[in-house]
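TODO from last week: model Methylated-DNA--[protein]-cysteine S-methyltransferase.
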Amino acid sequence: MQKGSAQGSVIFDAIVGAPFGAIGIRTGQERVRELVYLPPHYQEQAPRDAAAEQAAGQVARYLADPDFRFTLPLLDAGSAFQRRVWDAIAAIPRGSVRTYGHIAKLLGSHPRAVGQACGANWFPLVIPCHRVTAAGGLGGFASSDDENGFHLSVKRWLLRHEGATGFTSPWQQQPIFH
C-alpha cells in the first residue's frame, strides 16, 4: 500500500482503494467506528491497528466478491430508530433493492425518516444503504442527491457490483446505471 495523504493519515486508521475512489476506516475500542466513502485523490493507507486491519481485509474481500458477508465488530452507533432502519436494510439481499417507502411501511414510519437514517449510517457496505432507493429512481445516498455527484456514482457502482437490475428514474428515459 502507498502511504496515505497527510489528511488521510491523520483522520483514518486505514484507507482501502476502491474502483470509485477509496474507503476510509476509523476504529476505536477495538471496533470499527466508521466507514467513509472517499474520492479518488485519497491514497491507500496501511491499517494502524487490529480492528482496522480486519476491516480493511473485509472491505477488500467485498470489493472483489459482492457475496462476501461482513463480520466486523462495530461500535454502537445511532438512535434506536436508526438501528431499526439499519437492521431492515441489512436484511435486503445482495442484488435487490427496496424503496424508502417499503422500509418505512415495515417499520410503521415515514420514507423521509428512513432516508435520514440511511444518511446517518456509520457503516456503509456493512449496512448496505445503497440498496435503498426512491420509488421513482435512485434516490439519494450518503446525504447527497446530486445526480452527477461522487456519492451517487458510488451508489451506482455498488448496485452494479452486486448485480442489481437497472431501473429508470421518472425524469430520465435511460437506466440509472450510466
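Done. The longest strand covers residues 21-28.
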